[in-house]
Design brief:
CATH architecture: Sandwich
CATH class: Mainly Beta
Shape: globular
Number of helices: 0
Radius of gyration: 13 Å
Largest sheet: 4 strands, antiparallel
Oligomer: single chain
Helix content: under 10%
Length: about 100
């Protein structure tokens, strides 16, 4: 079934009933940068968009991103289950930019 909804990693539509619980942005640069506060407890899904190629890592308040972590291409939106992760870190591939984060719940 074709829908206009974003798809999860299994190809299932992510329902539009999720509302934005919070949002943040991180400046992407040559050194790893992490979110400055924990995700809200109501966040179930993380919606990520970066305007530059970068690498991301999800964990706790000690998370650090490296260039061997998950690659997020520029100008794409990806969705991740928050799970028990509380923070995100990001590092650039070759140019700086901004990682935008929406918490959905």
């Amino acid at each position: 079934m074709k829908t206009g909804l974003a798809l999860d990693r299994n190809g299932n539509p992510i329902q539009g009933a999720l509302g934005t619980v919070g949002s943040d942005k991180i400046t992407v640069g040559a050194a790893s940068a992490r979110s400055t506060s924990d995700f809200d407890s109501g966040v179930a899904i993380l919606e990520l968009f970066s305007d530059t190629d970068c690498y991301i890592s999800l964990s706790d308040d000690t998370v650090t991103a490296t260039t061997t972590d998950f690659f997020l291409p520029a100008d794409t939106t990806r969705y991740y289950t928050r799970g028990d992760h509380t923070r995100i870190a990001v590092i650039q591939d070759s140019a700086g930019g901004t990682l935008h984060i929406n918490g959905l719940g």
